Amino acid sequence: MARNVLTRFATAATSTMAAAMLLIGGSNAALADGAHFVPEATDVSWDGTVATVTFREVGVVLKADVTTISVKVTADVDAVCRRGVSTLHIYRSATALDAKDYPIGDDHTVEGAARVPLEVPGLEVSGFTCVITNTSVTTVLKDFRTGATLTHRTDHQQIRKSTTRALRQ
After folding, report:
1. Is 95 within 8 Å of 140 (Cβ atoms)?
2. 2-6 contacts: CB < 8 A, separation 24 or more?
3. How far apart are CA 95 and CA 4, in angstroms?
4. pLDDT at 81 over 90
5. Largest CB tally within 10 Å, which of 4, 65, 116, 131?
6. pLDDT tens across 2-11, in order?
7. DSSP secondary-structure letter at 163?
């Protein structure tokens, strides 16, 4: 519950910050018409607790030395939990958001890496043994000053052991 409240607060704060940045730096947005994220230079990994996102934005021509980029990561997890003849199919999802300033290089490129804490709760079921069957991680990059956006999705459809375990009651 507290995590949901914090996520909603962070999303609202980031949206407010984005609107303020657009109002303050309105003239900068016109200068950055060609700015865009490079899909091939975007990489996302998630270890179950932290999502690591690397990215590159090119064509960033602003009056400022930095630009503000938000990184929103959503992890969707499917799991199968078994106890004897009982089987549960579980779907859980969690989202986390990080926004900060990144320096603009002399070549009008922004190289960035974000480490975003992200855990998906509810994958443990008391008395059941659970196995993760599918993980999908969706990342949305947004530069508040240039308006550039990129959505990147990574699917892992192999079956692997979960970090969950059978809990004794």
Report:
1. no
2. 3/94, 3/121
3. 9
4. yes
5. 116
6. 555 445 545 5
7. S
Encoded tokens for 16: 């407010």
What's the start-to-end Cα distance of the chain, in Å? Answer: 24
Average pLDDT over residues 70-99: 96
- pLDDT, one tens digit per residue, over 19-60 is 444 444 444 444 467 999 999 999 999 999 999 999 999 999
Contacts of 125 (CB under 8 A, 6+ apart): 81, 88, 90, 164, 167
Q: Tokens 């730096």 identify what position?
A: 25
SS3 9: helix
Helix (H) or strand (E) holding 74: strand 66-83
The four Cα atoms 139, 152, 42, 149 give a dihedral, to 10 degrees, of -80
Contact 110, 60 (CB under 8 A): yes
| Separation between Cα atoms, residue 151 and residue 11, nearest integer Å | 17
